[in-house]
Amino acid sequence: MCGIVGFTGSQQAAPILLDGLKKLEYRGYDSAGIAALCDSGIHMEKASGKIKNLDAKIDGGKALEGNCGIGHTRWATHGAPTDENAHPHLSNGGDFALVHNGIIENYAALREELIAKGVTFKSETDTEVVVQLLEQYYDGDLKAAVLKTVGRLEGAYALGILCAHEPGRVIAARQAAPLIVGVGVGENYFGSDVTAMVAHTKNFIYLEDGEIADLTPDKVTIYTDLGEEVEKPITRITWDVAAAEKGGYDHFMLKEIMEQPNAIKSTIEPRIQNGEIVLDDFHLTDEDLKQINKIMITACGSAFYAGSVGKYVIERLCRIPVEADLASELRYRDPLVDEHTLLVVVSQSGETADTIAAMKECKARGARILAIVNVVGSTIARLADDVIYTWAGPEIAVATTKGYTTQVAVMDMLAVYLARRLGRLDDAEYARLVDEIQQFPSLVQRAIDLNPNIQGLAKKYYNHNNIFFIGRNLDYAACMEGSLKLKEISYLHSEAYAAGELKHGTIALIEEDRPVIALACYEALFDKMMSNIKEVKARGAQVLAVVLEGNRQIFAEADDVIFIPKTEPMFNSLPEIIPLQLFAYYVARENGCDIDKPKNLAKSVTVE
Ligand code: AGP
Q1: 510 secondary structure, DSSP code
Q2: How many domains does the chain have?
Q3: Per-residue confidence at 2, pLDDT binned at 50, 70, 90?
């Protein structure tokens, strides 16, 4: 929900911290602030609104002296996005500055306890209790003060700590919120994800829950919240800064839409060897597989819609019951899960709080956990029994595109892999499906190239609200994702409906000029969809149909038509989402929306 950064070295800290915050802005952008330590103590500047306001206030960082510091960009949870509530927070005596991502669940009790001791509070945030506790516990031993403080906290936190009496030293503490240490030469960093630090180092230490990093320019010490030092491996990442830049596109979202053929290629190519799907990272023995009598898929948002695609495809090929359930529901519904359940957890960031909670709930009930995630070393990746990474590269736009399509590609690959291992596919069918999967990158490229008129269509529909997305079977799963894309970046209301459901109520909403986007790519149900299109047309709807290229029947009914390239019908979800992504993007552009950073949203929802 928020992004935090820290630096200690020989350079001025503030410009480095500001640059890091800009890379994390997609995680939250209500307000931002930086604190740096120099000879005269801790200096701090904060600003509500986007990071550019802070940038202007501190002249790109030059106005804030000091070679060690911490920074924060906020997605408000407790307290409005004001300067007072912006992080960093200072202790009353000015001895400490602190930044925080997460929620301190027991902050009210701690606040009362501190007020009783005469501590005054300047903000409405939960975070401020932490910095006041630090000052209460500090008696010259910073490590002891930090251990005592985190020992009092309940909830989720990634903390960055700066102490006025400890020049050149910054502390980072992790509990159920992402936090990574960047290891430099004569300088060290911490951040909420690697994009904040990759311009300076490619060597990272992924902190686990309960671990604390104690950084000076020449030393990284990691210890547990019990104070015991631990040795941690250094992971070297392979992608570079350019991967986290816009690359000449107006928006990260458009860049990431165009990157999808390569992202899918990177995801599937290493896993198809000599015509065989090889999932080395999935250590499921034949005996394990025999024990599985149910597959559950859980995720949030777009990841859930990718999981919904997986439900259709895996169930159809494997003939095992497959449930897809929202993580925020699954975690509280006392699910029927045991050692015979394979739980597939889908997440781009690997840090979504609801998804982690659902995963832990099912793990505790004996389920085997397979994670499909994009961020290496993320919490979900580390908690799972097996991990299949979607090698999409860093996804910066809040609205996921390549994150979603690589998840769908993995779902399709997983379905074919499992069906083969279960003996459900003969050699010819297996070879045919594997070949179709190998065509995915070119299939998606063709879906991008096939519709140069999307921007024109967006101009026709951009000022309509309450848009219907209707479809059946796998087309319905694509409707859900297409509708979310439109809602979250253009702020136009739309809803996805199973087309067969319209007659049970929602057709009452159809009136003159109501836009209806009808996905009719699943040929086995095309005639049913034509009936639904006729029904809404008869009531005045404007119909934009998405169909397979070469379909001529559709022109008899639809006002506008988008074509998608043909593939195995089960795999339609990949090409058919591409025009819907582009449609949402161009509608949002027409409406002048902040496409990469939509209001009220954050890239990774790490709080409940
Ligand atoms: C997608 O466009 C949204 N930003 C959101 O629904 C997202 O998919 C959801 O929060 C899950 O995130 P995750 O994949 O990182 O777990």
Answers
A1: -
A2: 3
A3: confident
* 98 and 233 inside one domain: yes
- Do 250 and 227 lie in one domain? The reply is no
Average pLDDT estimate for 424-441:
97
Give a yes or no: residue 584 inside a domain: yes
pTM of the model: 0.77
* 41-76 pLDDT, tens digit each: 999 999 988 888 999 999 999 999 999 999 999 776
What's the domain range around 340?
246-438
* HEC-encoded secondary structure of 536-577: HHCCCCEEEEEEECCCCHHHHCCCEEEEECCCCHHHCHHHHH
CATH of the domain at 97: 3.60.20.10
What is the predicted pLDDT for the residue at 601?
A: 79
Same domain, 68 and 163: yes
Residue 373 CA, closest ligand 1 atom number: 14
Residues 456 and 430 in one domain: no
Report the atom number in ligand 1 closest to the C-alpha of 349: 15
Q: Is 489 in the pocket of ligand 1 (CB under 6 A)?
A: no
Measured by CA distance, the residue closest to atom 6 of ligand 1 is 301
Half-sphere exposure of 21 (CA within 13 A, CB side): 38
pLDDT tens-digit profile of 148-176?
A: 999 999 988 999 999 999 999 999 999 98
Which of 243, 274, 309 is a domain's end point? Answer: 243
Q: Which of 29, 300, 494 to mutate to test the pocket of ligand 1 (most atoms within 8 A of CB)?
A: 300
| Catalytic positions | 2, 603
Q: Please report the atom of ligand 1 found closest to the CA of residue 399.
A: 2
Q: What is the CATH number of the domain that holds 499?
A: 3.40.50.10490
Last residue of a domain, one of 190, 214, 243: 243
| Cβ atoms 438, 268 nearer than 8 A | yes
Looking at the domain assignment, is residue 603 inside a domain?
A: no
Tens of pLDDT, residue by residue over 92-131, are: 999 999 999 988 999 999 999 999 999 999 988 899 999 9
Sequence-ordered alpha helix ranges (H) in 156-244 = none
Does the CB atom of residue 347 touch ligand 1 within 6 A? yes
Q: Both tokens of residue 343?
A: 């739980």
- Residue 285 shares a structural domain with residue 197: no
> 333 — alpha (psi -120 to 50), left (phi > 0) or beta?
alpha
218: left (phi over 0), alpha (psi -120 to 50) or beta: alpha
235 and 293 belong to one structural domain: no
Cα gap 65→42, rounded to integer Å: 9
Smallest CA-to-CA distance from 376 within 281, 259, 483 is with 281
